[in-house]
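User: Thanks for the earlier help. One more: prephenate dehydratase. Can you show the sequence and predicted structure together?

Assistant: Of course, both are below.
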Amino acid sequence: MAFQGEKGAYSEEAIFHFFGENVQTMPCKSIRDVFKNCEARVVDYGVVPVENSIEGSVFETYDMFLSSSVKAVGEIILRIRHCLIALPDVSLSEVETVYSHPQALAQCRGYLQSLGVSVEVTYDTAGSVKMIKERGLRNAAAVASERAAEIYGMKILAKGIEDYGHNYTRFLVISVKEAQYSPSSKTSIIFSTAHKPGALYNALGAFARNGINLTKIESRPTRQRPWEYYFFVDFEGHQEEEHVKKALAELVSYTSFIKILGSYPRASTELS
């Protein structure tokens, strides 16, 4: 199971949440590497973050889906509880700089500003904890999970430092294999439309006419011509269900490009 980050990263926690604790995990430096290892069949599955309830979408994941052959085969929603973590003998008053992934720093922006510390961006939450330990940084702390502190034998200075309590990250499980049919499914697609009035309205109408609920829509630049976009859409239903087949057939007539990323069981995690 591939994930972006070091041991103790939230993506690894999502793997254990979905597959159970008795699986082997493979840390990767980037989300791109997770996709590439799945494509090459180095791993059976990868887990990648796609959006956070506070800070929004993870655009690298969307961009990789556009070019990759892997499929979305599962969904995980994980409650994110951030901790401030330092060397075992360091106190909060000694901390001058806090390191972490940009999403984690943004989710704790208010708390960190109240401390009056400087912040430094790194590629991973757990990787920041590992770095502080390896370098013996006494004036530094990291924003990461409680599990990361346990793995690296570090001290938790504060728990629950995220600015908003309802902080969740949605992950997708990816694989070269399609997911088996589930009656409680979501489907993810990408499409683009002609650059003319009413094009997107007509395209989205295919879902409304067939009674399909959209759960997310996100636009990304095509990078081919200025001000033209791809649209990433998640909706309830499976691509093999008749009303979904009908909607997708209608959608084709309104789009210049369409790609089905996959149908997969909806996450069972209850938001609380």
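User: Great, one quick takeaway?

Assistant: Residues 2-80+167-175 form a domain with the D-Maltodextrin-Binding Protein; domain 2 fold (CATH 3.40.190.10).
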